Amino acid sequence: MTLDELFQIAPYSLTKTEKDATLKDILNDLTRRHYAACPEYARILDAMKFDVAQNHECGELPFLPVRLFKQFELLSVPRDEITKTLTSSGTSGQAVSKIFLNADNVRSQTKTLNEIISSFIGKQRLPLLLLDTEMIKKDRSMYSARGAGIIGFSIFGRNSTYALDAEMNIDVDKVAAFFEEHQNEPILMFGYTYMIWQFVVRALEERNISFNAQNAVLFHIGGWKKLKDQAVDALEFNRRVQERLGNVKVYNYYGMAEQLGSVFVECEHGHMHCSNYSDVIIRRSKDFSEAEIGEKGLMELLSVLPVSYPGHVLLTEDEGEILGIDDCPCGRKGKYFKIHGRIKSAELRGCSDTYERR
Amino acid sequence: MTNEEKYTNAFCQAFDIDADTAKGLKFQAIDAWDSVGHMGLVAQIEESFDIMLEPDDIVDLNSFEKGKELLAKYNVEFA
Known about the structure:
Chain A contains 11 helices and 15 strands. Chain A is of the alpha/beta class. Chain A has one domain: Rossmann fold (3-Layer(aba) Sandwich), CATH 3.40.50.12780. Chain A is globular and about 60 Å long. In chain B, helix 1 runs antiparallel to helix 3. The interface between A and B is medium-sized, with 22 and 17 residues.
């Protein structure tokens, strides 16, 4: 199956056997493509004595550590074909990743996100409340991952309204007017987990203000690191969001700047799901072998989308575990998993060292 | 105003360009038509014809010509 054929079917429909075969074809093709077009990538594969001529199982494809995109400019198309250079937000205060996108890559990312999100909310475009500041899209030369996420999400909505002002204060009147105007229809909301917590939930709690949305869906992304420090988990987050905003169905999702589009959404049962466009492999940090279901390890993420940069097989700095395959009670096929959070950077140096020698 | 004029005008308004530049324009061919500008264009087109595009069509709208093709689905005919 090709990427175009994947776009024709429901995004959580492939069972393990079908999906393994599909990903194997597409990812091996991508490996060859990047090998031929990206000299740095080719050198890494050569150093590993990896034979690109053969088709390999997905688990055997060489993974690049995500931080390589911080250290090197890796691209697989001529520079003049690049239409967007995406930079990660770099919360850790370290160097930022640079991801080079051509028009095809941007397009397939958007299309994939559309397939995934509309499988949750339908194809109709709902009134959209963005729990962030409009300032995020002002500086367009700097295409940050945060801004890109917001713009990318905008296609699912209409009457896009930003809830926060330039100083990240919630504009209560504006939000009230939005809920008032759309009180008889379903509403869509989007934002970053920590921004929502700090500038919406906590801000409203301090001012003792609540809204009463009747039928809303919230998608949020961005990770739990800062919230863990405040001992806030998903259940607590959802409860407090609902307390302040009303009847809101909350969906958390996970994705990296390095693989935008093929995101992982948490289902009604609290499980993160791989779609047809992506997969997760958990690796043991001691020797990078594949872990069993239920065993914690480093998360390797596969995506069928990266064509203009060699980011189709990446080793993240996050720890997770596979919970099961094809049998989540929500009915979605594919692997489902749990994320345990970022590993400590001390451990990280170990794995990049080992990577060199692998 | 004919549909052709309305449609061209939506591009001119969204990107602050003249009609000649609009015709034949492709996504990301000018700085203004990036992903932010794209949503502005969608809003202009929707307002001009009083329609609402589906997300699929917003993604597929990648050139001046392609947009005309897509609008047929919304009963916007071009002579």
